[in-house]
C-alpha cells in the first residue's frame, strides 16, 4: 500500500464509497464537481479518484493499486491520459480561456492506455466567464470515456448551465470528535483553532503552521482600536505591510464572519483567538453595519486579479470600517441619549418637548 493510501482523510469515506461504487459499475459521470469549504481536502479527494480511474487494476476498496505502470506514471505526474489545469500565476488567480481550450484539445484525443481520459480543473470557481462558457460546449456533447473533475469552494460562482451538467460531490465538515481525533494524531497544536477554521481540520492545520492565530488576534485588536478611536486606519494598515493582499482580505473576512457569529449565535468564544477583544468588539458596534461592510469586502476581493496597491487597499478597507461602525455607533448613541432624556423627563415631570401642543 502506498503512503498516499495510508493517509486518506477519514471524513471522505462516505463520499468515497459512492464514487468507488460508480466506478465498479462502469457508471462514472462525465463531469464531477467536488465542492466544499476550505480545509476539507477537496483536491485530495479529486486526485484520489483520478488515480483510481487511471489504474489498470483498482483495489477492492476502489483505490488505485499503487503498483501498476499507470499508478507509477500518475505518481510521477506524467500519465499521458491525465491533464490538470490550475491558475498559471499565483494561487487563487484566474483560470483563463486558453488553458481550457488546451484541456478541450486533450479530451478530443484518443486514450494512450485504452481507458479513461481524466481532466482536473482546480479551483474551477476561478475560471473566467469565457473559460467556463468554453468548457460548457464540451460538456453538452462529452467525448466517450472522458471524465472532467471540477474542484470548487464557491460552486455557485460557476454558470448555472455548467453546474447543471455536473454530478455534485458535496463535502461537509466532519463531526467535531472525528476532527479533533485526526488533528490529535497529525497536528495537536491545531485543535484549538478548529472553531476558527469552521470545523475544517486541514484549514485548522494550515492556520497553526502559518501562525494565523497571532495574526487573527492582531487584526481583531486593530478593528477594535479603530472603533474606539485609539488607532487611525492609516496607522493600522502599516502593521500589515507585506502580508499579501489576498491573505489579508481572507483574514478580514474570517474575522467579520466570526464577529457576526458571535453577535447572533451562542458560539464558543473561549476557543477563539483574541476572544476578549472579539467580545468587546461585539458589544461596541451596531451589528446592522456588519452586512453592508462585509459586502464591501467581498466586492474588493472580486477585483484582486487587477494590479492594486496593497497598502492603499488595506487603508481603504480600514477607513470604510471606521466609517461604517462610527455611523452606526453615533446613531445608536443618539437613540440611547434620547431614551435617557425621555426617562429623566418622565421622572422629573418635564415634558422635554414630547407633549407640546
Characterize the structure shown:
By secondary structure, the protein is of the alpha/beta class. The protein has two domains: 168 residues, Rossmann fold (3-Layer(aba) Sandwich), CATH 3.40.50; 129 residues. Helices cover 53% and strands 7% of the residues. A five-stranded parallel beta sheet has the order 2-3-4-1-5, with helices on both faces. Helix 5 packs parallel to helix 6 and helix 12 packs antiparallel against helix 14. The N terminus and C terminus are likely disordered. Pfam families: DNA_pol3_delta2. Keywords: DNA-directed DNA polymerase, Nucleotidyltransferase, Transferase. It catalyses: DNA(n) + a 2'-deoxyribonucleoside 5'-triphosphate = DNA(n+1) + diphosphate.
Topology (elements, then pairings):
Elements: H1 3-6, H2 13-24, E1 31-35, H3 42-54, H4 69-75, E2 82-85, H5 97-107, E3 117-121, H6 129-140, E4 146-152, H7 160-163, E5 167-170, H8 176-186, H9 201-210, H10 212-227, H11 233-238, H12 245-264, H13 275-284, H14 288-301, H15 310-348
Organism: Nitrococcus mobilis Nb-231
GO molecular function: 3'-5' exonuclease activity; DNA-directed DNA polymerase activity
Keywords: DNA-directed DNA polymerase, Nucleotidyltransferase, Transferase
Amino acid at each position: 500500500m502506498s503512503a498516499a493510501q495510508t493517509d486518506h482523510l477519514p471524513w471522505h469515506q462516505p463520499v468515497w464509497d459512492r464514487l468507488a461504487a460508480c466506478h465498479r459499475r462502469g457508471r462514472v459521470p462525465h463531469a464531477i464537481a467536488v465542492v466544499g469549504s476550505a480545509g476539507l481536502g477537496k483536491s485530495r479527494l479529486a486526485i484520489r479518484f483520478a488515480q483510481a480511474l487511471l489504474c489498470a487494476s483498482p483495489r477492492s476498496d476502489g483505490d488505485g493499486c499503487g503498483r501498476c505502470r499507470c499508478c507509477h506514471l500518475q505518481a510521477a505526474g506524467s500519465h499521458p491520459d491525465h491533464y490538470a489545469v490550475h491558475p498559471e500565476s499565483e494561487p487563487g488567480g484566474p483560470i483563463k480561456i486558453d488553458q481550457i481550450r488546451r484541456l478541450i484539445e486533450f479530451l478530443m484525443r484518443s486514450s494512450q492506455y485504452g481507458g479513461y481520459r481524466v481532466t482536473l480543473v482546480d479551483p474551477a470557481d476561478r475560471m473566467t466567464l469565457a473559460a467556463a462558457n468554453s468548457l460548457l460546449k464540451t460538456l453538452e456533447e462529452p467525448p466517450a470515456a472522458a471524465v472532467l473533475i471540477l474542484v470548487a469552494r464557491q460552486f455557485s460562482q460557476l454558470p448555472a448551465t455548467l453546474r447543471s451538467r455536473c454530478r455534485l460531490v458535496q463535502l461537509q465538515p466532519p463531526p467535531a470528535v472525528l476532527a479533533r481525533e485526526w488533528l490529535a494524531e497529525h497536528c495537536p497544536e491545531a485543535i484549538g483553532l478548529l472553531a476558527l477554521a469552521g470545523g475544517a481540520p486541514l484549514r485548522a492545520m494550515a492556520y497553526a503552521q502559518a501562525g494565523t492565530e497571532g495574526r487573527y488576534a492582531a487584526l481583531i485588536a486593530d478593528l477594535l482600536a479603530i472603533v474606539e478611536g485609539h488607532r487611525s486606519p492609516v496607522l493600522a494598515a502599516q502593521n500589515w505591510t507585506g502580508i499579501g493582499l489576498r491573505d489579508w482580505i481572507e483574514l478580514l473576512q474570517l474575522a467579520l464572519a466570526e464577529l457576526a457569529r458571535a453577535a447572533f449565535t451562542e458560539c464558543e468564544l473561549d476557543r477563539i483567538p483574541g476572544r476578549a477583544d472579539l467580545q468587546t468588539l461585539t458589544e461596541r458596534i451596531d451589528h446592522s453595519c456588519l452586512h453592508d461592510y462585509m459586502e464591501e469586502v467581498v466586492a474588493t476581493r472580486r477585483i484582486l486579479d487587477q494590479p492594486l496597491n496593497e497598502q492603499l487597499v488595506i487603508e481603504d478597507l480600514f477607513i470604510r470600517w471606521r466609517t461604517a461602525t462610527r455611523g452606526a455607533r453615533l446613531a445608536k448613541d443618539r437613540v440611547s441619549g434620547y431614551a435617557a432624556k425621555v426617562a429623566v423627563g418622565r421622572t422629573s415631570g418635564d415634558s422635554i418637548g414630547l407633549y407640546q401642543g
